[in-house]
């Protein structure tokens, strides 16, 4: 069968994204065919498009979507035809109308959660989950610093952290985003062009924060280290400004024995039980209202290039979805 999907034949800017007609392969054992109803847009998609995270070309794009199971291959027991499901993972090909995907990596969407909510939150929500529960397991009363606090991960992580009794200091780039971050869990706001370490010291009586969650990368890494308390944890989990340059471990010593981690989601959900447990935690806080998703932008799949331009220009906030 034929479907439409975004393909890239070379690395580059948003213009390399092309909507083309492709053939959907026959289902293999353990696979399910999913017709997408909502596709999640994530900053990591721009890394795959630009070649920062290179792979084989030509390639699809996108690692998150929700939809309906249309067919299943041999030996599939985890889902059935008609199930509403959501997934995140590789290979990148969620920017498509229909695709095949390993059934063991599909998660059924619970009642009360829409397809759009699921597609807008799974990757970003599971990122917030591992940041707060594994990279630095927060405790009530902790102070933490969160960059891009009005972004997709930021809004979810700030709400979840507040629910866990954590004081979140958010970093944003505009007053509009500051208001959004405050409304979604941030107790304090620092503007990105301010002296962030100085502001953090002032807000924490000179102590510093227990952890920094930094998705910006190159431009903020050293300043983030300066925000930490002794034995604090630097969690660098994104490269919005480019990859972090090599640094001397002595930089950690002279700031009072800091820790640095560079986590990746899929190291925390390597098995289906781990995936289901993590998704259960996410759906729980979505279901009880502790965390709400803000879908602030919707684009047609054919307008994926425009969505990428807006994302990289910091014109978006909250979560963004593509509609097939």
From TrEMBL:
Catalysed reactions, semicolon-separated: 2 a quinone + NADPH + H(+) = 2 a 1,4-benzosemiquinone + NADP(+)
CDD domains: QOR2
Similarity comment: family membership: Belongs to the zinc-containing alcohol dehydrogenase family. Quinone oxidoreductase subfamily.
SUPFAM superfamilies: GroES-like, NAD(P)-binding Rossmann-fold domains
Lineage of the species this protein comes from: Bacteria, Pseudomonadati, Pseudomonadota, Gammaproteobacteria, Woeseiales
E.C. no: 1.6.5.5
Enzyme kind, highest EC tier: oxidoreductase
PANTHER family per record: QUINONE OXIDOREDUCTASE PIG3-RELATED, QUINONE OXIDOREDUCTASE-RELATED
Keywords: NADP, Oxidoreductase
Organism the protein comes from: Woeseia oceani
InterPro entries, sorted: ADH-like_C (IPR013149), ADH-like_N (IPR013154), ER (IPR020843), GroES-like_sf (IPR011032), NAD(P)-bd_dom_sf (IPR036291), QOR-like (IPR047618), Quin_OxRdtase/zeta-crystal_CS (IPR002364)
Origin superkingdom: Bacteria
Record has Magnesium as a keyword: no
A GO molecular-function annotation: quinone reductase (NADPH) activity
Pfam families tied to this protein: ADH_N, ADH_zinc_N
All copies of domain Enoyl reductase (ER), residue ranges: 12-322
Protein name: NADPH:quinone reductase
UniProt GO cellular component terms: cytosol
């Amino acid at each position: 069968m034929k479907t439409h999907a975004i393909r890239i034949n070379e690395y580059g800017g948003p213009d390399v994204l092309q909507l083309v007609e492709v053939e959907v392969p026959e289902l293999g054992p353990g696979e399910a065919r999913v017709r997408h109803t909502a596709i999640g847009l994530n900053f990591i998609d721009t890394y795959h498009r630009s070649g920062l995270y290179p792979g084989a070309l030509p390639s699809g794009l996108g690692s998150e979507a929700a939809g309906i199971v249309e067919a299943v291959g041999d030996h599939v027991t985890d889902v059935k035809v008609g199930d509403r499901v959501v997934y995140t993972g590789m290979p990148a090909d969620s920017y498509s109308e229909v695709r095949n995907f390993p059934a063991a990596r599909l998660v059924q969407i619970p009642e009360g959660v829409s397809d759009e909510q699921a597609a807008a939150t799974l990757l970003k929500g599971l990122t917030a989950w591992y940041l707060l529960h594994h990279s630095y397991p927060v405790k009530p009363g902790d102070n933490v610093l969160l960059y891009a606090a009005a972004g997709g991960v930021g809004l979810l992580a700030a709400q979840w952290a507040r629910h866990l009794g954590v004081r979140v200091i958010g970093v944003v780039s505009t007053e509009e985003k500051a208001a959004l971050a405050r409304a979604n869990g941030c107790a304090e706001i620092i503007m990105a062009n301010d002296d962030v370490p100085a502001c953090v010291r002032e807000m924490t009586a000179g102590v510093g924060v227990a952890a920094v969650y930094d998705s910006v990368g190159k431009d903020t890494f050293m300043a983030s280290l300066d925000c930490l308390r002794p034995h604090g944890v630097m969690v660098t989990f994104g490269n919005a400004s480019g990859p972090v340059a090599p640094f001397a471990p002595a930089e950690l010593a002279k700031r009072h024995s800091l820790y640095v981690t560079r986590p990746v989601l899929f190291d925390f959900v390597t098995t289906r039980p781990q995936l289901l447990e993590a998704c259960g935690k996410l759906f729980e806080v979505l279901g009880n209202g502790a965390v709400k998703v803000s879908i602030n932008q919707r684009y047609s799949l054919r307008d994926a290039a425009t969505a990428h331009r807006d994302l990289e220009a910091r014109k978006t906030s909250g979560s963004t979805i593509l509609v097939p």
